[in-house]
Design the sequence.
């Protein structure tokens, strides 16, 4: 964390794919994710926000998060049972940027 | 970064990574009173967030956390020059501790830049 650089950047990660539940064909690939540190702040809400939220939202958060701004498809070669080969297309991040945060919880 | 406090002179805000208490000035104002300029502790920083493509819907998994209040105390001030019958008291939250976390839509107005 100490050496982290502000901003939102491509970050490689390993992905393993299977052609079906039985794993008849299998392959792995290094895909790209977006990882980074974008600016966010929280401060007391304006009076208009307090009134509009029935005094529930006494804090306002103005934030950006690291998002994928461009995707591309790449082919992953699969090795199958019985020396057969196959291929499958998966998505990988092409570009990243600090943008709107998703509010859904995980 | 936990529990740290940023002042405008300390540290370099351009390269700061983490979430900290930071001084914030705002105008406390409501109809029927004069506004009052207040300097208080709020939260500011850069939290680690990410998005990665996944094979199943929704095809993008997101881990989005924002720098927000983790512990607060409430402070009440009296606004000046209020008209007759106007409640002169104004309550606002003061950040005791800030942390990277989900934006809680129950207590927070969650906005994007």
Sequence:
């Amino acid at each position: 964390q100490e050496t982290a650089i502000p901003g939102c950047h491509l970050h490689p990660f390993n992905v393993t794919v299977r052609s079906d539940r039985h794993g008849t064909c299998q392959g792995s690939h290094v895909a790209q994710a977006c990882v980074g540190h974008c600016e966010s702040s929280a401060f007391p809400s304006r009076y208009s926000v307090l009134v509009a939220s029935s005094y529930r939202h006494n804090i306002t958060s103005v934030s950006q998060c690291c998002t994928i701004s461009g995707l591309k498809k790449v082919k992953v070669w699969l090795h199958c049972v019985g020396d057969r080969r196959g291929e499958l297309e998966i998505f990988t991040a092409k570009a990243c940027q600090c943008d709107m945060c998703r509010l859904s919880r995980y | 970064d936990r529990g740290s406090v940023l002042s405008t002179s300390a540290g370099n805000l351009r390269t700061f990574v983490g979430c900290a208490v930071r001084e914030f000035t705002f105008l406390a104002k409501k109809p029927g009173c004069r506004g009052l300029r207040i300097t208080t502790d709020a939260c500011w920083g850069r939290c680690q967030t990410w998005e990665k493509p996944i094979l199943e819907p929704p095809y993008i998994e997101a881990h989005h956390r924002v720098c927000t209040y983790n512990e607060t105390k409430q402070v009440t001030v009296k606004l000046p020059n209020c008209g007759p019958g106007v409640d002169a008291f104004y309550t606002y939250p003061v950040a005791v501790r800030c942390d990277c976390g989900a934006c809680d839509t129950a207590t927070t107005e969650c906005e994007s830049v």
Summary: The mean pLDDT of chain B is 91. Chain B touches chain A through 56 residues (CB under 8 Å).
